Each structure stands twice: as structure tokens, then as C-alpha cells.
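Record 1 of the preview.
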Amino acid sequence: MIPSPELHHCPSHLETLTWTDQLFVYKEETTEECLVEACCGIAPVNSYFVKDGIGNKVFSILEDSECCDRQFCAGGRSFIMNVTDDSNQEVIRLVHPSVCCCGSHELEVQSPPGTAIGYVRQNWHVCLPKFTVVNEQSEPEFTIESPCIGCIGCTKYELLSLNETVIDRSFGKIFKPYSCFGSNADFVLRTACIMTRHKGCQSGLSHEEMYSVP
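->
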């Protein structure tokens, strides 16, 4: 296992991330929302919460988007994800512009909100999901790659160093259990943004994992 890329100063409002090497993302769905979506086909506002490896809730995530965009544009819609801590203070903002069906996704990471600290960019490929995480100067920091999108079951995304001279370039993982619903690209974009901020707050950890839990 190789060390993580160079670490940066961690803002005080994100110090929670300095002592965890695992994050779990749960999607919040109420019975009413499920019924409305199943019966009327109306997509609800997406919301999530993030827990650390011992079950402590560290973040809440709420999508800000237009109802029509959620209905008709799906993963290509424009949206903002507001990430708040346990005191309901917004600590991270994720901004996704609209993109056509054949375009590549890009998500801007802001922390504090209004200050861009990096971007997650999808590298278009016929069958291999690949993303590049870049800093505020658009300099590549690391890549995120997965097996072929046709693979069934739990999808694993590897966080890979750009240093191709080392034998094991992997320094972290993102897991997504198999689901009939939801886009893998959407999931990776959002979780990678948390990982982007997570990496800036690590203090000596060389391995990181993020999971999506249904």
C-alpha cells in the first residue's frame, strides 16, 4: 500500500475527518417519498447522511435541484449538494452543472462554501468508468477507476496514485452495492467529492474507504 498524496491543512470545521479512515453513505428515504415515487413517478429530493467507521454521524447531505430537472434530466441535471455537520453548519458544497447524455460529468467541490478546492471530472470511456480528481489549479491529484460497467454485483472503485512507477498504486476504495436504481457515475461523483475533502484532512493514514449502504 502506497502513502496517500500530499496532505494539506485541515480547516477546524472538518477536523472530524482527521481520525477516521472509513466513511459510510446512507440514502435517506421516507415511506411517503417511496410511495409517491412508485405511484406517481415523482422523484423526491435526494438526501443522505454519512457515518464514520464506528457509526457516528458526521455529515448530512441535501440536494438542491428543480423538480422538473429531477424528472426529465436524471443524472444529467444541474444540482447543488449541501453538506452540513452535526451543528447544521454547511461545511462542503458540491456543484454539478447540467450535462447532455453523451457529455462527461464534472462536479466542483467548495469548502468553505463559495471557495473551490477541487473538481471531480469524468473521463469519458466506452466501458471503463474513470474519474480524475484535480485541485483548485486543475492539476490532477489522483484517479478513480472501476471494472467494466457491465459487471454485476458490488462495484469497487479504486483510488489510484498518478505515480505509475510504484507496484501498488491503490491507496483507497469506494464500494457501491449492486442496485437496480441509481447511477454509478452519480454515486462516484458525490462520494469522491467527500473523499477529496477527506484526503485534505488526513493525518498519517495511508488507506481510506467509502461505502454506499442501501
